[in-house]
Every structure is written in C-alpha cells, then in structure tokens.
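Researcher: I'm comparing several assemblies side by side, and this is the next one on my list. It has 767 residues spread over two chains. Same procedure as the others: predict the full complex and return the structure.
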Amino acid sequence: MEPAASLTLGPRRLHGLSPVLDLLPAAQQGFVPIAVLIVSIGRWGILGALVLVAIGLGWRVLAWSRRTYRIEDGVLRIDEGVLNRNKREIPLSRIQQVDLRRRLRHRVAGVVAVRIDTAGGGSGAEAVLDALSEADALELRTALLGHRAPAPAGASQYATPAGPVGFPPIAPHHDPFGQPGIPPPPPPPGYQQPPPGYGPPGPVGQPGPFSPPTQPGPFTPAGPYPFPPPGAPAGAPGMHVPEVVAELDTRDLALAGVTGSGLLAGLSIVGFGFLILDYLPDDTGQDVSSGIADLFGTALVIGIAAILLVPLWLVVAAAASILRDHEFTLTRYGPDLHLRRGLLDQREATLALHRIQAVWVLDNPIRRKLGLSAVQLQSAASGTDATSDVARLTIPLVRAHDLPRVLEMVMPAGGPLPTLVPAPPAALRRARFRSLVVAAIVFVLAVALIRNAYALLAALVFLPAWLYSGRVYRALGHARTDTAVVTRSGPVVRNTAVVPVAKTQSCQLRSTPFQRRVDLATLRIQVAGRGPTVEIIDGDAATLGLLRNGVLGAPGARLDEQSVRKRAHADLEASDQAAEGGQPVSNYRSQP
Amino acid sequence: METRADVAEHAQFVDETSGGSDAVPLSLSPKVLLFWRMPWAIVTLLLVAVCVIGAVASDATTGWLIAAAVFVAIGATAGTLLPRARYRRWRYWVTDETIELRHGLLFRAESSIPHFRVQHIDVRQGPLQRSAGIVELVISTASASTDATLPGVEPERADAIRQVVLARAEADDAV
C-alpha cells in the first residue's frame, strides 16, 4: 500500500496543558509529604511547597517543549528528552493498535491520552502521548491506523476445514445451556435474511435492534473506521462497516454489577446455612439450648448487620460497574473489535479478532437464574499492563438469547455452543471423596478443639460438602466441534471456555495417582499469550488422549500459524522499506 | 568437546529414530542423575553438619548423632532411588509432526508440541549443570505456559534436536 510513504504529519507538540496534567498524579502522591512539611514548618513550609511545585512544573514544561511527534516516510518519530535526547522511530506498519484514554483530568481539560502498541508486545506500550487535543488525537489515530497492511491474500484467518479430524465431532445444537437439543424453528415465509452481524432479524424491511447507530453519540468517530487517510476519497477500499457486538446501558451495567459481585451467591450459601439451623429440635437439653441461644444471639446480630450492609454493598457494586463500563460499546469493524467504556476514566481500545485465543463465558447461580452471563475475550497481547483492555476484554453482561450471536461475532471459528458431554461417573466419586475428606478434617478438628457436645454440630458440615461435590461434578463437561473445543467447570462461578482448534499451541495431559486409578486425566490446552490455560478436568483418559491427537493434528492450526507468520513477514518487509534501521526488530518471529 | 561430526551424528540419530509410529523414545542423558542427586547430597550434608555441631555443642550427643544417622539414611536412599525412578520415567520423542515429552512419577504429564508452533529453542546451562556436563533445552511456543523443557541432555544431542526441530518448524515458512 503506497500511501504510507507519502503521509506526513508535521512536527507537533503535545497539548499545552500537558505539563499541568502530568503534575497532578505526582502532586497526588506527594500530597502527604507536602502537607506534613507545611504543618511542621508553617509559613516557610508553604513557601517550600510552592517552590517544589514550581520546580516540578518548570521541569515538565521544559520536557513538553522538547517533545515532538511527527509522521514522515511511513515512520512515526517521537523526539523527546531534556538531558538525554531520545529519538524513537516506530514504523507505521508495525503499529497494531492505537488506544485512547480519557481520565477525569483529561475530560476536564478536553484532551486525550494516546497509547500506541506495536505487534509482539514486549512489556507495556510502545509509546504514550499524554495528552493531545481531541482533534489532534483523532487525526493521529487516522494517520496511524489508516495504513495498516491488509491481510495477505489467501491466508484467511478463519480457515478451518470442515470434517472430522481424528475425533468424531459432536453435532452442534443451538442450546447454550445444555438443554436437550431442539432445532431452531424454520423461518417464516417471506423472511429476508439480513446481512450477517446485524443482530436478530427483524420483520422484512426493518432493521433489527442492533443496527449501527445513525446519530453520532459521544464517542462516534468523525468518519467510517478505519478513518480515511487525508486526501483519500471516502469509501476507499479497506473501509469496514461497523457491526455492534454489545451495547450496554446503565441498567444493564447496574444489573451486571449486582449479579456479578459474588455477594448474592455468597448470601445464598449463608441463607442455606440458616435454613439448616431452623431444622434443629427446639429443646435438646437446657445447656445445649442456652448454648445455641447464645450462638443464635451472635448470629442474629451478625444477621442484622448483614441485612443492613447488603443493600449498601449492592449499591456500591452497581455503582462501580457503572463507573467502569459506562456506555459500554463493543463494535466490530471487519477484522477488529473496538471497545469504548468508562465514565470518569474513558477508554477506547482496539483488538484484532485474529489475536483472540479463547473466549470464556462466565456465570454464577444468580445469573443463571436470570439468564445472564459475562463474556471474556482472552487475547495474545503480551503487554504486562494489567489494566489493558486488550489482554482480557470483558463484556459484563450478555443475555442468553444473545449469546450465540455475540460468540459468532467475536469468534467466528468457534461456532455455536454444543451440548457438553458430562464427565465420567468416576469423576463424581472423586469429587465426593475430596469434599468428604475436607469435611471430615473439619469435623475432626472441631471435635478435637472444642471438646464438648457442641462440637457435634460440626457434623453439619457434611451436608454442604456433599451438595458441593455434586455441583462440582455437574459443572464438568466438554465437547469437540469441527473447529473448537469447549470445556466447562466451576461449582459456583461456572466458566465455559471455547478454544478454536486452530489456536492450540500445545497440549498437556496430566494425571494424579487418584485419577489414574479410575482412568481419568486432565487435558490442558495452551494458547498464545500469558492468559489462563484451558483445561478439561477429570475426563476419561482414553477419550482425552484421542481428543489431544485430533486437536494437534487439525490442519487449521497449521494454517493459523502460516497466516500469523505471513502477517509478521509482511510487517517486517514493510518496516524494512520504511524505516532507516533505527528501530530494533522485535525478537518474536511471529505475533499471534 | 563437541565437534560438528558429533552434532551431525546426533542429528541423524534423532532424525532416524523419529517419524511415524516407529518413533523411538529417547531418554535424557545419564549425567542428569548426577545433577538431580546433587541437591539431595548438599541438603543431607548440611543437615549432618548441623547435627554434628549440635552434638558437639550440647549434652544430648547421642540424640544428635541419631538424628544425623537418620538424615544420612533418608538422604542416601531417597537420593539414590528417587532420581533413578524419575530418570526412568523421563521419555521424549521427536516425531515427524510433534515433540512429545512424558515425565513425572506421581503427577504424570504428557506434553505435545507441534513443530510448526515452536518459536525458539533455548539451551541453558547453570553452574550445577555445567559441572554435570549437561544442558537444559527449553522449547518455547507463543504460549507462556507451554511445558517443554528437557532438563538434561548432552550438549551435542541438544544442538541436534535444535537443528532438526527448527528445520521442521521453518519448513512451513517456505510456503
């Protein structure tokens, strides 16, 4: 693509308020020492504090005046440094994403912090420009991303040939929660299939509820994405039409916060405990009953406190969710996902679909009752920034009827969720054994330490242990479709992980002596990046062995690796042409 | 001292023993036993030294000496038997398509890494390994949790494996 070489963006400085904005976090950290200084020394302390602030500000103004950025010859150049002059050169073709962030101080000042990441990571962002004006930031993003090389011809990211490979696939049903498969009803006559990605079909001629926004909202960019390079006509090749994946309003976010906080799940367990206490006989002897009354006394106090605190906790959870994910919008622009969220701290992040290694669907008992779940996208981003949306992108709330569509949009290679094969009965016996052993230990400790009749109450712990082990077993399950492996676990917070077979990096079959006794094993499927490993727990050893061979032998994985390498080579060649050799080449051979 | 002939010979051996269902399992270098036994020896010696000091410094000499004898007994038996059992369980294959590892006494693990997923292969040698004459081969993929480490092979064999595997991994690049 030629335009990369011709684009120039003149040398510019960051926004004029940047020194002040930079000073604020430092002032926040230094507030306590300065306050101590003022209090202890008095008037001279105030003077000293002012001098410190002035020095800090002066230094930052100096740094601001030295920092410039420009684009020329297909390279982003950032010159900075007061004492040590630092020239950074980032070839445009290596830039994978440009994220915008507006914290509270940025919003007050009307500026944006721009974070630029290249492929292959390393730790942290490649470059951060904090802060630019809105117009400058959008123009920079257009310039940086408008020239990304298109995917090389013939290397389809989602190419996974159909057909059984080593392991008979389970026919996919359209039932994400394991209900016996009921095929979807046939479409009514006169029904017109909307273009893919436009959400549930509406009546003929009308858009479904998820058609792209027609009016610009607060985050709508100033044009179709990727933004046309300056001078190029609108509708130039490479433009993608946006498709909304998930859009959450305040009510949704409050619901997500309340149901996801773990509080209600915990309450249900506590409530269950109180229920058991109800069934004790009323007079089992004077001492015991008075002892229990004491116990109930304290339990009552705790209960009342809990009842008062619970609504407060829920409100806080809902508020935190709203603050974090305000106006959550996840949009798909062709091969990229674009996320906007946040109230005080606004973030815009971009994640390329081909970097998504696994998709996790999370729910807990409350959410299951309400038909809700959360979806997490695990990507290969290797940056160690824990707050990065790219490494682990979470959609806080997805409704059950929407889940297949969302999964289809974020992971086309995954396919609809199949019915999961439950774990072998031996796994139930193992789970029971484990829980009962723990309960027995608790009981023995209680009897040994408490040494009177009350200790027998500890025998109550066996019932919850039995029920818990049942939940552990029922949560286990896995399935293999043509293109993906699906596995589920978790007695309380249930995770369902979908891994495309093409994304498998390596597999490991593990077994403990207890598992080997009953022919069970655990299969771990490793995907690119630093995220959690997908596991099929306590599956039949022979089945898992076949599954492993099938997964490793699938041609899709080889195609995936080839397309990753082609992308890397295209980047390297483009950057070799553009750069003057100032930018060191990444150590990674390919960036999944 | 390794020569190019040694490495080439090992490479041929690895090439020939791999492939298809006749893949021959390879074992680690026997010198890894020395490497695995060293920590046992060091810890046992330290404990015995502590016991000797205790015996000298305090009155209950027999107690300390008995403790020392117990430590020596435990250290000797465990240090002899456990590394040997572990060595016997350690197997790896370099097949046409994958690298397979099988190891572990109680907690067994079987790892498989397709050749085309290998990003790079590192050869490491710490001071203990250098004194035992072995190297550690670390095969890395794009996943941070891939477990593909051969804890102790001869340096020539390590180079041979590296050559063979990287050649097969690169073979896809030619497309």
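Model: For your comparison table: The CA atoms of residues 22 and 153 of chain A lie 45 Å apart.
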